[in-house]
Amino acid sequence: MDALTHAIEGITSIGAEPISDALGLHAIRLISTFLPVAVQQPDNIEARGNMLIAATMAAMCFCNTMTGAAHATAHALGAIYGIPHGMANAIMLPLVMEFNLEENPERYVMIADALGMNVEGQSPSTSASMAAQGVRELKKLIGLSDTLKDFGVESDQDSLTSLVELASGDGQISYNPRYVEESDLFELFKQAI
Amino acid sequence: MEGVMEYWKDQYEPITAFLALFEKAKADPELSEGLKKVNQLIWFDYTEDGPECSFHVDCRNGNISSAKGKPSEEPDLTMSLSADDAHRSWSNKLNPVMAITRKKIRVKGSATGLLKLAPKLKKVAVIYEQALNELNFSDKIIK
Fold first, then answer.
1. Cβ contact, residue pair B118, A175, below 8 Å
2. Given a cut of 90, is residue B116 above it in pLDDT?
3. Checking CA distances to B79, which of A142, A146, B30, B72 falls within 20 to 30 Å?
4. 0.80 surpassed by pTM
């Protein structure tokens, strides 16, 4: 899920460029195809090999573009609650995608298509929103949690303030396609709990 | 030797405009609170466009003041860039983080606090446009 987040945030980052787009989009195609297989059949070498390739491609994608608010919030969740990075990304990613949707929907149409969603004949806004849906479906397929509550994250103001404080100063947040105010971070964390 | 600037006639024009912007920012409760949180002495160094082309903002200890030139004390943060790129940045047409990544802005000191204010650039751009209009610099507004 970290690799998927690298690819998706790489494609939507303010630093996105065509070569990174190509790397990120194909990484998404490989992950959506082979991650469920690798999880269900851990001995399937072809699936695991393709996941390694996908993770490498996604890393090459985001090395050129940086990431965004999913990574910034996941870093804070890892630092304060010790939530594994991929898991924190998996929880925050669809929420951040929905938050960013209005900024550059056409990027999310490409992502929805790479995730294997049927965007044919759909309006651009519907197709774009299918990207977050695609991520949620993939998570369900591999049996991942969708809430920070499972990791003991508290929703009181003090707990959220520490998370917001860390995430707002994280180097990756500045590459998010939409400016993220502190109030937006509070809202994103609350939604994730 | 001073380079040719795209938006400014001389090295004094940008400093006049940027100081006017900071006067307005000080009067804005949201922006002044944000600046106070930064709590640094910041030198905005545009001297690549002329030796007088710089100003500083002191937002330490709950006060905000700004003035032409380099501060007499050692700044906590120096941001060096061209006056044209500064104009683009205050106009919200140049993302400061991307500009740092691409070395259009060179940073000395910690810029984390100031970059936390990047989301406020939308609002800054609105009051910057007002400041430019009041200074009869309307022709410099980036459409």
1. no
2. no
3. B30
4. yes
The amino acid sitting at B37 is K
- Min Cα–Cα distance to chain A from B105, Å: 15
Collapsing DSSP states into helix, strand and coil, what is residue B82?
Answer: coil
CB-based contact, B126 to chain A, within 8 Å = no
**Residue B70 falls in which region: left (phi positive, over 0), alpha (psi -120 to 50) or beta:** beta
- In this prediction, residues A133-158 reach a mean pLDDT of 92
DSSP A97-133: HHHHTTT-HHHHHHHHHHTT---TT--HHHHHHHHHH
The structure tokens listed for A99 are 């938050």
CA–CA separation, A160 vs A189, rounded Å?
A: 7
Residue B102 pLDDT class (50, 70, 90 cuts): confident
Residues of B within 8 A of A15 (CB-CB) are 98, 101
Evaluate whether B30 touches B123 at the Cβ level (below 8 Å): yes
Which is it for the CA torsion B2, B128, B41, B100, positive or negative? Answer: negative
Q: Are A6 and A59 in contact (CB under 8 A)?
A: yes
Q: Strand B77-80's sheet: what is its strand order?
A: B65-68, B54-58, B41-45, B77-80, B106-108
Tell me the pLDDT tens digit for each residue of B67-93. Answer: 999 999 999 999 999 999 999 999 999
**Nearest Cβ partner for A169 among B95, B101, B112:** B112
Nearest by Cα to A118 from A50, A8, A32, A20: A32
